[in-house]
Amino acid sequence: MSFTWFHRLGSPPYVYALAQRLTPWLAWPAALLILAGLWGGLVLAPPDYQQGDGFRIIYVHAPSAWMSLMVYTTMAAAAAVGLIWRIKVAHAVAAACAPIGASFTVAALVTGSLWGQPMWGTYWQWDPRLTSELVLLFLYLGYMGLRAGIEDTQRADRASAVLAVVGVVNVPVIHYSVTWWNSLHQAPSVMRLAKPTMAASMLVPLLLMLAGFTLLFGALLLVRLRAEILARERANPWLKEALAR
Amino acid sequence: MSAPAVTSLANAGGTALAAEALPVTSLAAAGLALRRDLTLALRKPAQLIQPLTFFALVTMLFPLAISPQLSQLRQVAPGALWAAALLASLLALEFLFRDDSQDGTLEQYALSGKSLTALIFAKTLAHWLLTGVPLALMAPLAAIALGAPTAALPGIIAAVVLGSVSLSLVGSIGAALTLNIKRSSALLSLLTLPLSLPVLIFGARATQVAISGGSLIAPLELLGALAVLGVTLAPLAAAAAVRISLE
Amino acid sequence: MSPNTLEAENLHLWRGDRHVLRGVGFSLPAGQCLKLTGANGTGKTSLLRTLAGLMYPEEGRVRFCGADVRADLRAFQGSLAYLGHEPPLKADLTARENLRYWIGTRRRLSDALLRAGLARVGAEALAGRLVRTLSAGQRRRVALAGLSLCAVPLWLLDEPATNLDTEGQALVGSLIAEQLARGGLAVAAVHHELSGLGAVHQLELAA
Amino acid sequence: MKEFLDMGGYGAFVWPSYALTFAVIALNVFWARRALRRAEAAARQRLAARGGP
Fold this sequence. Notes:
Oligomer: heterotetramer
Order of helices and strands of chain B: HHHHHHHHHH
Number of helices of chain A: 8
Strand content of chain A: under 5%
Structural class of chain A: mainly alpha
């Protein structure tokens, strides 16, 4: 029985309808979680003993950073499935992920440097986490650049899938070498961008934000996925009925 | 050539299907591919010089941009050397597959019935022999020009030889992916540079240790590890990318 | 060896938005030739590349000797020769070197066999000359020499007689005749009549 | 309320961070919906073209 479930996830009309039905079930809970996280993070959580209220940037920086990596891995996994079993829907998922991941990588970079500014006195510091985030942004731009460079959708799907898989294999290698490089040259005195030790009242809002952002990603992905599926279905008869819904 | 003569010759020239032609292993086929690329490159040496002149050119920029003081340049030498090496090897990558794709020989490799991964690895090995090794032999000149002590030269050569293996391998994936894209040199560097950063970091570190006279074991081991990772994964990805570009 | 048969079943292929192959199907028994006709852009090349396993049809299947070619694509591709629009030759290598590196990766190739292959197509005088210095017709003959040296059961030929004079076209006809006589198969996209082949299947690809 | 906005002196960093992140969220929502609308329009056009002649 389980195989037919997986098999049905490969059929565009089924996934299109599923995506259409699920979107509100992800979007509204995401909004609620994010609002609760904001209220907890900005109002209820006490200031940090070291960074004062400056630490509250973590409630937007950490979720964005988590999104940038989680979306890339999701993209690479979908790309691998699409490449191995030749499932068009998987390639559609990968294509839908890229812009979302890239935009939150930019958010993570900017909020990271804004958060680091009070500590370092400058807006950019070659902190290992920020540097890895910057490289991740280039991986996204490379993926989207390759997709834009190839006209034929099927070939663009498969070529960018290879790049995504190669990229995800390199992400830990890059992160390790950047951290190793940073520990080598960095004077220990400069505080690195690490999460401060957090009391429960500080931690709960962060978990709410992380959950909210993840559900938000789900909702955004499903909307974009429908667009990508339509783009790949040419003039299939089932479209008429799906569009009427 | 009248018809009868043709049929009699056929048995001599064309071999009958029944007697299966003596097969060739993928390894032997890869050896042939390597020899072909080396022969082709030596027929047109001008193309071999280009990456080397580019490497010297970029190295020359640093003293002019920073300062003529060797003591100051020595600080920047490892980074300048490796940035120049990275860009030079990138330059030579674009035509790794493009010429073969345009004249149809790459297609024949894909249809050869032999492991395309082995054939692609042979082509990448030829690329490394033709660009990576010459760069490594030229690196000491650049290092001296940037104030490195002569004692550091063997270490620098070893680092560039080892590092350029990974550069060629990672580059082969980008070259295969952008095979059919016109004006793809910008995209090729966007795909290849982020994946080459670990090599840049460990290579520059090895050069720095060589200059300061420290023990080269650890940095060279890390460069070796990257090379092994590259050798095992890159040809597979590049072969898949070639098949996709031929679709 | 089970008889060489090539079947295509309900092949559908799109190139971008164009539905290039619309349910193409045929069955080609051993010793037979299939002639593909149709105007430019009707999918002859796409069909040949799909049969060769270079392109992946969205629907349908290709069977060789009864087995789906995708089951062991590499073995299938080892048993076919595909000749595209351009002869697959490097301009900076001589005709002999080109054959050595092209056919040599497929099968063991002695010098005698190589010379015989060139002689078969009347190109033995070109052996030592760089392909860069050869005319289009001469390059096509060197490519045909490679084809005849492949010794494989299935030939997929895309306009094999381009740039050839009438004598060259007759050569193509006789090469295919030999391939069929050996019990092999040939699928050829051609504009002109294939001389001396007798009964030939034909597949017209509509615009 | 005023000290809330002041954020213990870090207001100049906290609020831009939140503003930017929620701008990115809003941009994503807008982008996704626009992409879907465009894809639906294109699909309808393709259906009309196919259904026609």
